[in-house]
Amino acid sequence: MIAIPGNVRVWLATGHTDMRRGFPSLARLVQESLKRDPHAGDLYVFRGRRGDLIKIIWHDGQGACLFTKRLERGRFLWPSLADGVVTISVAQLSYLLSGIDWRMPQATWRPQASG
Questions:
Q1: Which of 15, 40, 90, 95 could form a disulfide with 100 if both were Cys (CB 3.0 to 4.6 A apart)?
Q2: pLDDT (tens digit, 9 = 90+) per residue, 67-109?
Q3: Residue 70 phi, psi dihedral angles, 5° rounding
Q4: Which residues neighbour 48 within 8 Å (Cβ) at sequence distance 6 or greater?
Q5: pTM
Q6: What is the C-alpha to C-alpha distance for residues 82 and 68, in angstroms, rounded to an integer?
Q7: Cβ neighbours, 10 Å, residue 29
């Protein structure tokens, strides 16, 4: 597990991204399309056309990181293109990476105390 600081902002790039891109190309996309600095320490998340693959870029102050995750089943829930750039919390990113609806996570059932 990679520890991500809680004060990091997470940006979702709406729409579809060519998943053949690497860090330099995605960083340029952040600069040109999102008007953000990809080296500022925020996370930028991109989703492929099929919806089962995401890439995350992050500059942690020491170097550039590129993370990739492909779901074996299902698709990552993604905002529509009309939403523009969307920011989410690190907790919501954790839900997203787990395949859970990050927009409205549901509490799981817990048994009541016995006795």
A1: 95
A2: 999 999 889 988 887 767 889 999 889 888 888 888 776 655 5
A3: -120, 130
A4: 16, 17, 18, 19, 54, 55
A5: 0.84
A6: 25
A7: 18
